[in-house]
Specification:
The chain is of the alpha/beta class. The protein is about 25% helix and about 20% strand. It contains 7 helices and 30 strands. It has a 7-stranded parallel sheet, with no helix packed on it. The radius of gyration is 21 Å and the shape is elongated.
Amino acid sequence: MAAHHSKNAEFWLALLELGDTEEEQRQNWNYYCYWKLALVIAQLVESDERQRIKERVSLPDDQMKAGVRRQLQDFVKQQGGHPTLPSDPSGEIRSFMDFSGREFPEDVSFAGRILIGVDFRDTEFKERADFSGAEFLGPTYFDNAEFHTTQLSMAEPAMQRASFAGSKFHGFASFCKTQFPLNARFNGAEFHQGAWFYRARFPGRFVRGDLNRAQVTFRSSQFHEMTSFKRVEFGADTEFDYAEMAGRTNFRGTRFHGSVRFYNCGFRSTTSFSGAVFWRPPEFFEAELHEDTDFRGADWTKAESSYQRSIGRDE
């Protein structure tokens, strides 16, 4: 992938590391965003969400605010000034925080950060990537990004992963053709304006000894508008337990190589599994399927064979 150079990106990457601890780094990032981008944030989220975000990132007392402000002012001076700030969020917010085409060779954490018009297209994450609890404002792009998975060893059983647990996507989110690692977590994530995972790839299990931890989980996630998992490759076991699909949902041509669970999942609008391929019987226990649910052309042959084998083992 080609390297991408952006003055704004260099500023944000430096700000990402401002502070001695992860908590301080997150505090500095969010305070800067609310200090310089309050008007932008106000135009990108509803009033109740704006107030919630403000309360979440606010500092406890004036003395601490003054200290953080001085630290940030010194930082901005060292960086040669502020990044170019959008004057019109509706027209300039796309790719405002532009990390496209970059490589992150080590663990990287954007956890709990306010991310505005963030662009990670064609980005490589060589190690763990943590976006848990992040607030994604404006459009978000991870198209063609690669989250790498290295071989496991008995000495290092912890698996590399990408975590979006508890994150909120206030604008449209696109993960088209994204290559995820063995462990991808979207537990409790909220997608407010549509989510697009067209042709994303979730790799299959890696088995060595008793290490078999590959999993994709959207447990308790909320999809408020149209969602597309069209032609996605779910190589690992997949879980949508307690997820809410409020808008039209598309699993056309999706291939589920592992188990897939929809326990207590709510499908509130038109849903399509047309042409989907199941290697194991899907589990819809206590799920609420919409009356307009389409399974035409779904391939159950591999799931039926898997079921017959399981019956044979039980006898």
